[in-house]
Amino acid sequence: MMHLDDFTQEIHRDIPLSQHMGFQFRAFHCEPSIGAELRTELPLTPNLNDKHTAFGGSIATLATLSGWSLVTLISRHLNLPAQVVVYHSEQRFSAPIEHDFYSIAKVTAQDYQHFVDSLSHGGSAKVQLSVDIYPIGQSPKQKPSASYQGKYLAKVINTD
After folding, report:
1. How far, in Å, CA of 134 to CA of 103, rounded?
2. Count of alpha carbons within 13 Å of 73, Cβ hemisphere only?
3. Distance (Å, rounded) from C-alpha 134 to C-alpha 41?
4. Could you give the CA distance from residue 151 to residue 126 in angstroms, rounded to a whole number?
5. Cβ within 8 Å of residue 130, ≥6 positions away
């Protein structure tokens, strides 16, 4: 399994916007009984808007890329590297973010198992996930400042 610092560098290389925004992947957990989860952090300064809060476009990018990264990491964890694309998403903004911030992307245990079965047997799979975004220091047990629902498609890369 790839170390998250290596994954961060790979994403910075392949998606230059992520480096400019300051993306850092902090924690990845993947277990069939609980599903999968990825924590990603962003500094506020390069993502400011004119109101000195987090720019909505940065929040949307964090959510989309966190979801994409979670699905990519799951496929690699399964030894089934895949091309991943988002094909549908919805986002809600609930409160301004005035500090560095983080996201928690999650796939439920049920959706994880369905994804694993489809990807393993068919070579492609769809998965739905959620991403909640909070200011650093705010517990994920509190209401998120933004929330996102995304649907992603993964297709195993033919390594022959």
Report:
1. 6
2. 32
3. 10
4. 7
5. 105, 106, 147, 148, 149, 150
Residue-wise pLDDT for 107-126, tens only, equals 999 999 999 999 999 899 99
| Identity of the amino acid at 106 | K
**Residue 30 and residue 41: Cα distance in Å, rounded?**
19
User: What does the angle CA 19 – CA 20 – CA 23 come to, to the nearest 5 degrees?
Assistant: 45
What DSSP designation does 157 have?
Answer: P
Contact indicator for 74, 100 with CB cutoff of 8 Å: no
Is the Cα dihedral 111, 132, 27, 5 positive or negative?
A: positive
For 34, phi and psi rounded to 5 degrees? Answer: -120, -15
**How far is Cα 77 from Cα 30, in angstroms, rounded to an integer?**
8
> Does 11 have pLDDT greater than 60?
yes
Region 9-31: mean pLDDT is 96
Percent of the chain with pLDDT over 90: 93
pLDDT at position 106, please? 98
Chain centroid to CA 153? 14
Tokens 């973010």 label which residue?
Answer: 97
For residue 82, what are the β-bridge partners?
156
CB atoms within 10 A of CB 55: 17
